[in-house]
Amino acid sequence: MKEKQKAFVMDIKDEGRSAVDLAGGAQIVAEHIKSLYQNTEPENEKLLTVFCGMLMNYSNDNDSLQAQLINMGVIPTLVKLLGIHSHNVALTEMCLIAFGNLAELESSKEQFASTNIAEELVRLFQKQTEHEKKEMIFEVLAPLAENDVIKLQLVEAGLVECLLRWWLRL
Predict the structure, then answer these.
(1) 118: buried, middle or exposed (CB in 10 Å: 19+, 13-18, 0-12)?
(2) pLDDT in tens, 16-67
(3) How far, in Å, CA of 29 to CA of 49, rounded?
(4) What is the DSSP string of 101-147?
(5) Among positive and negative, which fits the CA dihedral 61, 62, 65, 68?
(6) pLDDT at 10 over 60
């Protein structure tokens, strides 16, 4: 029975993604994020959290949809959003999961490298006290660190020192 339920849920997800794709939903959401990311009003942050959640769900385990979002240039906007709204836990988590999905594709690394993602992730890692949150950051760091440019950016942003301090506290 569990396998049937799982297959049913996957079919619904695929149908939902197709409907969003056909309606141009990813473009609409990406444009809304680009127009709202600088606004720090609480109502706006809730809306941005929902939009980032939509991108996260849309891009999960689907290379073609991930590529579509990358081609729309959503990565630089999400990195800026993270820098502005890192105090918002829910929004930060949505960004990190979306980054993890998008970082799976090699083509995303170039866009990530053109941003200050290394500085943002190191700053966020230093700020986190919960193990689960640090783990979420590691899940983004791992695929990004496969890229030589990003690797250097992470070193310059102080990741090595940050990790050593963290390790010594364990």
Answers:
(1) buried
(2) 777 777 878 889 999 999 999 999 999 999 999 999 999 988 888 888 889 9
(3) 11
(4) HHTTSHHHHHHHHTTTHHHHHHHHHHH--SHHHHHHHHHHHHHHTTS
(5) positive
(6) no
pLDDT in tens, 154-168: 999 999 999 998 888
Contact (Cβ atoms closer than 8 angstroms) between residue 34 and residue 77: yes
Domains of the chain with CATH codes: 2-169 (1.25.10.10)
Cα–Cα dist 50/22, whole Å = 20
Q: Are residues 96 and 137 in contact, defined by beta-carbon separation less than 8 angstroms? A: yes
What's the burial of 150, exposed, middle or buried (CB within 10 Å: 0-12/13-18/19+)? Answer: buried
Q: How far is it, in rounded angstroms, from Cα 69 to Cα 152?
A: 25
